[in-house]
Amino acid sequence: MWNEFKKFAMKGNVIDLAVGVVIGAAFGKIVTSLVDNIIMPLVGLISGGNNFSELSFQVGKAVIKYGLFIQNIVDFLIIAFSIFLFVRTLNKFKRKEEPKEAVPVIDQKEELLREIRDLLKNN
């Protein structure tokens, strides 16, 4: 069982996924900082000085912080759009690097056989 687990864990896909998760988490922190410290204050100025993170209302003893929810939605949209742009750019580079399909080289004998076949068809 241990050897089977090692084979699974050492496959390229699992390691790539782990690296992707770590980089994604770090990228998420950067985008969250961008949203919290730059974008949302600007949106607050545009909307009349409102701070979305402080928007809330109280129902009994429960505090519903819908401003934080709005901020998380903005975080998600910016992260998703950033990843979309990154993947799109990466795919453009991959398409340029892919070699074009090679034109098959036809042997001289094959060419002669094709000509004979075409002549026989025409007669």
Automatic annotation (TrEMBL):
Keywords carried by this UniProt record: Cell membrane, Ion channel, Ion transport, Membrane, Transmembrane, Transmembrane helix, Transport
Matching InterPro entries: Mechanosensitive_channel_CS, MS_channel, MSC/AndL, MscL_channel
Keyword Membrane: yes
Topology in the lipid bilayer: Multi-pass membrane protein
GO cellular component assignments: plasma membrane
PROSITE patterns linked: MSCL
Superkingdom assignment: Bacteria
Primary localization: membrane
The keyword Repeat appears for this protein: no
Compartment(s) of residence: Cell membrane
Pfam family, one: MscL
Residue spans crossing the bilayer: 21-46, 66-87
One GO MF term: mechanosensitive monoatomic ion channel activity
PANTHER family cross-referenced by the UniProt entry: LARGE-CONDUCTANCE MECHANOSENSITIVE CHANNEL, MECHANOSENSITIVE CHANNEL MSCL
HAMAP family according to UniProt: MscL
Function: Channel that opens in response to stretch forces in the membrane lipid bilayer. May participate in the regulation of osmotic pressure changes within the cell.
Record note on quaternary structure: Homopentamer.
Family as reported in the entry's similarity comment: Belongs to the MscL family.
Name of the protein this chain belongs to: Large-conductance mechanosensitive channel
Record organism: Robertmurraya kyonggiensis
Origin organism lineage: Bacteria, Bacillati, Bacillota, Bacilli, Bacillales
Gene this protein is translated from: mscL
